[in-house]
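User: Let's play a game. I give you a shape written as tokens, and you guess the letters that built it. Ready? Here's round one.
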């Protein structure tokens, strides 16, 4: 590294009027459009927060919105602490005026700054990391670019004046990274000499070399009404896995009859439990909760609550599935194991698996049930109790 920069910040521009989108967005400015239940500017803030060298961000909002958005941001950071510092600045008449105001809100010791348009909510942490790495390796100004795939012509009126060499052309994206001092100098010159530019690199390139890194095709800008479809189509489905475990002691003649997976096991030992004692469904419910970070069944259905005394574990499982659905998770597979020395469960395995399929709404190939002993070892091997484990796979819409 040539000269490591310290205290790197981001400027997130969210001060535009969004006039080209106003009608299609119902009058909402594009920076406030919601994607996955959060406004576009907040998605950019999340991305900045995932890049370790970034210490903070300045949000630039329309001047009339600054007071309200400061209150809004306090609530956002209270409910989702991104772990970075933040400030708010008013926007200006032009994009470059908004950036200049954002620069004024940076701490005095800010060594590097990344300027980003909030209308690009899909920028990845990889781009930010590559930009910062280039700065740390000696570049003073770095921008992400993607190749131009169409033939581009310079047109005068309605006549082609020139066909440009596509190999020398690139489309420029944000964020763009700069030495803070260099960007301030460029804005001072632009203000004094009346430069009109469309991005920060356009003014900085008059003072210093601008280096490029590969951008990303997915890093599109929400600009025209057709782009709103991107917010609908850009959702992704990710796999998630939860693991559940439960144990019940065997009891005397007056305790719960043994039930596994909702199936009564005739002749089996009784179990001590507050609900119906279905150790398999309890482990399964815990596994489902694990797919979306939902805690455990003890939190949702505590054995200290009289409402759950004698509760049917199948009902509790359905409530757990409803929680998963609300969190955007669809259960697609369950691998289940019961560990017990008694009774022998092989005669009941097919029925248990079939009933689990019914409870989960899955096909036979999506549920695997097995039973094993522990060769007389441990409390199960000594016939003191029974335990179950469950591995649950889900798909979650993000």
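Assistant: Ready! My guess for every position:
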């Amino acid at each position: 590294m040539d000269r490591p920069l310290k205290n790197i910040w981001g400027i997130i521009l969210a001060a535009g009027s969004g006039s080209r989108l106003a009608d299609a967005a119902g009058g909402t400015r594009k920076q406030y459009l919601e994607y996955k239940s959060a406004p576009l500017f907040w998605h950019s803030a999340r991305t900045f927060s995932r890049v370790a060298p970034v210490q903070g961000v300045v949000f630039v909002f329309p001047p009339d919105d600054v007071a309200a958005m400061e209150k809004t941001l306090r609530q956002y950071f209270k409910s989702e602490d991104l772990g970075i510092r933040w400030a708010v600045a008013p926007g200006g008449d032009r994009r470059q005026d908004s950036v200049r105001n954002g620069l004024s809100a940076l701490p005095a010791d800010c060594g590097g700054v990344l300027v980003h348009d909030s209308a690009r909510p899909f920028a990845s942490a990889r781009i930010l990391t590559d930009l910062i790495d280039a700065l740390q390796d000696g570049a003073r100004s770095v921008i992400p670019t993607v190749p131009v795939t169409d033939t581009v012509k310079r047109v005068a009126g309605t006549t082609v004046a020139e066909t440009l060499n596509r190999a020398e052309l690139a489309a420029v994206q944000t964020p763009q990274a700069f030495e803070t001092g260099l960007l301030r100098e460029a804005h001072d010159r632009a203000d004094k000499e009346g430069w009109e530019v469309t991005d920060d690199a356009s003014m900085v390139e008059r003072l210093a070399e601008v280096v490029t890194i590969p951008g990303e095709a997915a890093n599109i800008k929400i600009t025209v009404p057709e782009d709103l479809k991107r917010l609908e189509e850009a959702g992704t489905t990710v796999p998630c896995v939860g693991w559940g475990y439960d144990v019940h002691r065997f009891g005397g003649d007056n305790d719960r009859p043994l039930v596994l997976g909702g199936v009564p096991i005739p002749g089996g030992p009784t179990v001590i439990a507050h609900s119906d004692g279905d150790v398999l469904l309890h482990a399964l419910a815990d596994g489902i909760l694990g797919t979306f970070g939902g805690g455990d069944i003890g939190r949702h259905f505590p054995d200290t609550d009289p409402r759950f005394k004698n509760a049917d574990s199948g009902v509790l499982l359905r409530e757990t599935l409803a929680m998963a659905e609300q969190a955007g998770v669809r259960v697609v597979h369950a691998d289940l194991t019961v560990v017990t020395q008694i009774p022998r469960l092989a005669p009941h395995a097919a029925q248990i698996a079939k009933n689990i399929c019914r409870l989960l709404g899955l096909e036979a190939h999506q549920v695997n049930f097995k039973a094993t002993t522990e060769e007389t070892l441990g409390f199960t091997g000594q016939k003191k109790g029974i335990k179950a484990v469950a591995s649950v796979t889900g798909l979650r819409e993000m």
